[in-house]
Each structure stands twice: as structure tokens, then as C-alpha cells.
Amino acid sequence: MTPTALRQQIGDAFSRAAPEYHRHATLQHTAARHLVEMMPALHAGRILDIGCGTGAVLNHLAEQHQDISLYGLDLAAGMLNQARRTWSDDSPVRWVQGNAEMLPLAEQGMDYVTSCLALQWCDLSLALAEIERVLKPGGTAFICTLLRGSFHEFNQACHALGHQSPINSFMSLADVERTIAMTQLVSAGVQLRTLSEHSHVFTDALRHLRGIGANTRLQGTCHPLPARRLQAVWQEASGGQRYTISYRVGFLQLTRPSKNRTTP
Ligand SMILES: C[S@@+](CC[C@H](N)C(=O)[O-])C[C@H]1O[C@@H](n2cnc3c(N)ncnc32)[C@H](O)[C@@H]1O
Is residue 160 part of a domain? Predict the structure, then answer.
């Protein structure tokens, strides 16, 4: 599949998930809150939220900061439509449909960039290059992204049954750090958090996985899973009597230097 067709497929999956996304996105909302808590008090300036979905991060930002201009960018038209419905007509957000890997925005226009659980869907090196391009010198990006180890209870259950997990694999922390090191961005270090959610009903847990729209395969294809056996092994991997979904999340703070670093 070409990169353009894959982006289209990812956007379509998130657009389909958009009407119900809010109900299933409990962990995303927790991550969004943690992300905004990392940010300093802001008094003015422009903030771009990449992969804004239905606007969880922008909601927190609008609540906490008055005189800022907010831009919400997402690949999925359905997510943006859903976001627009929840904001009034005089909302401070400008909504932009676009791809994080090719931002349709001018250079050095943003004081801050945020992105919550979206960049794992992108080529991180392209997305970071774009973030660097649109940030003003001295501007900072606050990003959280899924890392390897996410969904490990579910993946463990699939592997125990001899099946490939339908969930995509994610970059390791070391890979993310290597990708950052290839940019001019200065990292304040990566904070790691594991966010977990438990469900006592198998179909609810599966619906949750589908409801967040995260079901587009980036790598390979999968065979259908044997549901009954999956229930037992997923419970076992979750410590019994429940189905656990865990996100291993890396929180990054990356600043564009006021002057470009020179290579020695
Ligand atoms: C898991 S949702 C997170 C949404 C929101 N940030 C939140 O925390 O609730 C991921 C979002 O990233 C968007 N997305 C995926 N790939 C993207 C890309 N290449 N460019 C822009 N947005 C993208 C999806 O459409 C989706 O809305």
C-alpha cells in the first residue's frame, strides 16, 4: 500500500470511530490531562495541536489559558466535524485538516505544539521535522506517544494462542530517542507512564479497542482470533477476572533552539 493510501485508510478509520470516540477514549483523556500539566503557564501565543481528534487537549488549554490562539489539526475529517460540533461558533480554535508529516502551515508560526497519542500513527522522523519547521525559534513541543509495551496483556494473549496480534507494534523508547537526536530539537528527557484500563466484560474490552479507531494495520495482515480462547488467556495475562488494556506512554518536551546548532 502506498503511504498516501495508508494515510487515507487511517483517516477513514478514525472518521468512522469519531461519533463514539469520546466514550471510549478514557485513557486518551488521562494522557491529554498529563500532557497539559507538563506545560508552563501561557499568556499569549499560538498553539498547534497535531492529531487533535475531538479536541481533548484543546479543551484543557482553552480552560486554562485565555489569550492564546489555538489550532487543531487532524487527518480525519470525521474527527474534526465531531470536534466542531462540541465547540461553539465563537470558539477560539481554528480547525485544519492535514497530515502531521506534511503540515499545511507556515514556517515558524507556532509558539507551542502539542500532540497526544497521535504520532505513533506517523513516520516520527517526518513529523518531528515538520514540528521543528513550524515552531518559532525557542518554541516548545509537548508530545505524548505510544511506545513498545503498549497493549502487552492483549498481545501476550494473542501470542499464547499462536496468533499475530492485530494491534500495531510501536517504537521503543531508544528508537524514539534516536529519532529525536537526528533533529535540531533539544529534548528535556522522556517521562514514561503506564496508563491502564480494566474491563470485566470481554465484548466491552474489544469494543473499546475498536472504538478508539486504532484498528488500521500499519504492518502486515492478521487472521481472525479465536474469541472464546482469547477471553481466557487475556484474563490470565491481566491477572484474572478482567481484561486489561495498558498504554505505555512516552511524554516528550522538545524545544527548537533559538539558533540552529552547528555540527562540529
Ligand atoms: C488516538 S487519537 C488521539 C486524539 C486526541 N489527540 C486525543 O488525545 O483524544 C489519534 C488521532 O490522530 C489522528 N492522526 C493519525 N494519523 C495522523 C496524521 N498523519 N496526521 C494528523 N493526524 C493524524 C487521528 O485521525 C486521530 O484523530
Answer: no
